[in-house]
Design goal:
Blueprint: E1 7-8, H1 10-17, H2 21-35, E2 43-44, H3 45-52, H4 56-63, H5 70-73
Antiparallel strand pairs: 1-2
Helix pairs in contact: 1-2, 3-4
Length: 78
């Protein structure tokens, strides 16, 4: 079984948002600044999900190439 990741890299942000590498790095830097982290400290799935307003489970499964259930991708508030 492949080891699962919880740390986020700029390529993950690019995959999730469709933005370029530079914008992805800017997003990570913004998260670091707002959470008071230093440059060497990692950004987690939960921190990125909160910043982007996404479900942490969707972010986790996407960066780890796990299948998403339809109800995880599309949520309708009734």
């Amino acid at each position: 079984m492949r080891q699962q990741r919880i740390c986020i890299y700029h390529n993950d942000v690019t995959l999730l948002t469709g933005k370029g590498e530079r914008s992805a790095r800017r997003i990570l830097q913004s998260i670091r600044e707002s959470s008071g982290k230093q440059d060497h400290q990692a950004i987690t799935v939960c921190e990125l999900a909160q910043y982007l307003g996404l479900d942490p489970q969707v972010v986790y499964k996407t960066i780890n190439n796990l299948p998403l259930l339809e109800e995880e991708v599309v949520r309708t508030d009734s």
